[in-house]
Design a protein that fits this description.
The complex is a heterotetramer, with 2 copies of chain A (about 210 residues) and 2 copies of chain B (about 220 residues). Chain A is α/β, with parallel strands linked by helices. Chain A has one domain (about 1-205): Glutaconate Coenzyme A-transferase. Chain A has helices at about 1-15, 30, 85-90, 125-130, 195-200, and strands spanning about 20-25, 40-45, 50, 75-80, 95-100, 105, 110, 135-140, 150, 165-170, 175-180, 180-185, 205. In chain A, the strands form 2 sheets. Chain A has a 10-stranded mixed sheet with strand order 4-3-2-1-5-8-10-11-12-13. Chain A is globular and about 50 Å long. Chain A starts with a helix and ends in a 5-residue tail after the last strand. Helix content of chain B is about 20%, strand content about 30%. In chain B, strands 1, 2, 3, 4, 8, 9, 10 and 11 form an 8-stranded mixed sheet that branches. By secondary structure, chain B is an alpha/beta fold. Chain B has a single domain (about 5-120, about 130-215), classed as 3-Layer(aba) Sandwich (Glutaconate Coenzyme A-transferase), CATH 3.40.1080.10. In chain B, helix 5 (about 100-110) packs parallel to helix 6 (about 175-180). In chain B, helix 4 (about 80-90) links the parallel strand 3 (about 70-75) and strand 4 (about 95). Classes of the chains: A alpha/beta (about 210), B alpha/beta (about 220). Chains A and B meet through helix 3 and helix 4 of A and helix 4, helix 5 and helix 6 of B.
Chain lengths: ~210, ~220, ~210, ~220
């Protein structure tokens, strides 16, 4: 299980190169931080660019925390700022990518990841991130508990953003969201096309390189 | 011009039915002792503007547990199931605003503007009840300013003029909230002499600030 | 002549008390700064609260200048900020007052002070200041060259702001702008009511204290 | 990630018909050497966004004298009679924006918003051609965002990541302009090593900045 999550995180981390500025959501997206190259800069919406891994025990500082209140470290050259500036970075187009989890993603690149029936959580910065970041990468397990589809023809839960997702990375495959629909670009080792099709609730266009 | 006050002077300012705005983010950088004072004041029927609801036993979570808060405007309340429960039971009203939009709405209030046009939330529930405005063929939501009777701010350093410096990720919403309250009250970790802060390191100029408290009982 | 200007500046300076935050325009308004009490804080729109008088020769710093590029000094506790913050102070209602010159002021408190025919200057921060400051005090000579009226029934030049002026201070008198019109509140020593009426192109309500 | 460049690399970026945005205020805090480079480039038909027109022989005044500028968006041009002359003769277009409005329009462009509602200029010529929007019974002008292909910024200190610190009143429009250019070029008085700037003293986070120049010929 951790294996699966790590695999997804490693895959996503490989998309980034030094100089990129990336915001990571909670869950699998957070794990992406463990595998990125040196020089990929991480943005946390509570007001910091340039954070590093968790500090050694005893070295925690209440002045260096993430959006989930977790303790962070900072690389030399890190900059702190207020929440308006933080989202100026996001909305202003300065994020190379955001990596987020999803409850549902659909063929049009719609994303639902902040609200499910009967639970009151709030969208936090997710709606800003999906509208602002150049790439919106969904990093998630391919299906929900019980094998329920998460990649759908059309999202049923309240949306986070309309037509915002650019890429979906799961333990089974990599899917690119295009104007024509979802393009299956890559199968993970040992995964068959049939398995992906079965576990996907949306129409998939199989990339030429896979045919 | 000396804005340093004692706890008792601040205590007088809290009353029923007021709107409070509060800095902090996920239990970090919150003016925790000022929130304690609001709890102690017993003021009822409060409307609160804050990024989040905190944990139930921390920061503004305490005002929800004490049932002093009747309304919350926030972006995220997932760390506080008691808030969710209160909303589901109809005891509290919750208005959700995307985090970046919330930040700009508070800044908008503080800067005396009438609103800002933002794309965030287009095509989602965030559209509900909002005016859509077209600019150069693109749609935006008209997001309205937020202000409060009292703004509660946590700062790392303050001088008696109200000049403030924040530290690291404790900054978050504090400088925005510090612009948008009719009365802006600061809980400072350290009071420094006037002139000790360089004019370039000051994050919030004192002109925005009403009162500064050193966080000590009396 | 300098005497007249100094007199006006002294009069205006007397309206302010420690803790007030005031923005001074060019000309006579600038001279107000020479007579204010200690503890009245001066705001300059290019980004500073807490400036003091001109520096001694040789002590000028290019990092401490006013809106007219003139050299300033700074009191301990002065704060520097960017132009957006500077006008957040103005528009957000944190200025006790602004003191400005005028080409024309009228009975409704309309102000024209930025544009005259055939000269292209621009409003700079004047429009923001008159809409944002709690008190908008016009400090000027009562009439223009040749005795031409400046206080009018209705401004003829392009406006800086509508119904924004709260007080007019000249070498002759102090006029308060009210909902009922212009109220003559104070005559300078040796000045007669008739002289003021003759030199004013607007209806003046004479305050009870002067009758 | 090293954003330090030489003059020749910057020179390549200027071309005819581009929009330039420029920090500085009344000949102070201007990126003067970068403006010299624009003059040297000979790029024609430029649109310029700047608080003012400078003096005729200083800062962007030089681009007006050289007749490279065809349009200026500014709040004040009184120090530059040559600009006034060019406008009266129809050689240049001038759009005046109140100073605080100009600052917010630049910030608005930099923060990816679609506009801001501002009262300043109501009842004046500033209203012309603008949409009026009512919010809670009050009228506001819809002011539109400004962005530019290249933003020219003057900073006191910069590191190779583009983190910037300004000094005193040289700050003015620079941090706003530094957010609103597609390419943001910084003329720094001093280049400091990465890590030399404290995370709390940085005025402009490097993420906004494209290129940093030390102001030396090569």
């Amino acid at each position: 299980m951790t294996d699966i999550k790590e695999k997804i995180a490693r895959k996503v981390a490989g998309f980034f190169k030094p100089g990129d500025v990336v915001n990571l959501g909670i869950g699998i997206p957070t794990m992406v931080g463990n595998y990125i190259e040196d020089g990929v800069w991480l943005h946390t919406e509570n007001g910091l660019v340039g954070y590093g891994p968790a500090p050694e025990p005893g070295a925690e500082s209440e002045y260096l925390t993430g959006a989930g209140a977790q303790f962070l470290t900072a690389y030399p050259g890190a900059a702190a700022f207020d929440s308006a500036t933080s989202f100026a970075i996001v909305r202003g187009g300065h994020l190379t990518a955001t990596v987020l989890g999803a409850l549902e993603v659909d063929e049009k690149g719609n994303l639902a990841n902040w609200s499910r029936p009967g639970v009151i959580v709030g969208m936090g910065g997710a709606m800003d991130l999906v509208n602002g970041a150049k790439d919106v990468i969904i990093a998630m397990e391919h299906t929900a508990r019980g094998g329920k589809h998460k990649i759908l023809e059309s999202c049923s839960l309240p949306l986070t953003g309309v037509g915002v997702v650019t890429k979906i990375v799961t333990e089974l495959c990599v899917i690119q969201v295009t104007g024509e629909g979802l393009v299956l670009q890559e199968l993970s080792e040992g995964v068959t096309l049939d398995e992906v099709l079965e576990k996907t609730g949306a129409r998939l266009i199989v990339s030429e390189t896979l045919r | 011009m000396n804005k340093l006050v004692s706890k008792s002077e601040i205590m007088k300012l809290f009353h029923d039915n007021m709107t409070l705005m509060c800095g902090g983010f996920a239990n970090r950088g919150n003016p925790g002792k000022l929130i304690d004072m609001v709890v102690e004041s017993g003021a009822q029927n409060l409307s609160i503007i804050s990024n989040d609801a905190g944990d139930p036993d921390l920061t503004i979570g305490r005002l929800i547990r004490s049932r002093q808060a009747k309304k919350l405007i926030a972006s995220h309340v997932g760390m506080n199931p008691e808030l969710g429960q209160a909303v589901l039971e109809g005891r509290m009203e919750l208005e959700l605003s995307p985090q970046g939009t919330l930040a700009e709405r508070i800044r908008c209030g503080g800067t005396g503007m009438g609103g800002v046009l933002i794309k965030t939330g287009l095509g989602t529930v965030i559209e509900e009840g909002k005016q859509k405005i077209e600019v150069n063929g693109q749609s935006y939501l008209l997001e309205l300013p937020l202000t409060a009777e009292i703004a509660l701010v946590k700062a790392h350093k303050a001088d008696a003029l109200g000049n403030l410096v924040y530290k690291g990720t404790q900054r978050n919403f504090n400088p925005l909230v510090a612009m948008a309250g009719k009365t802006v009250i600061v809980e400072a970790e350290e009071i420094v002499p006037i002139g000790a802060l360089d004019m370039d390191e000051i994050h919030t100029p004192g002109v925005f600030v009403s009162l500064v408290w050193n966080g000590e009982e009396e």
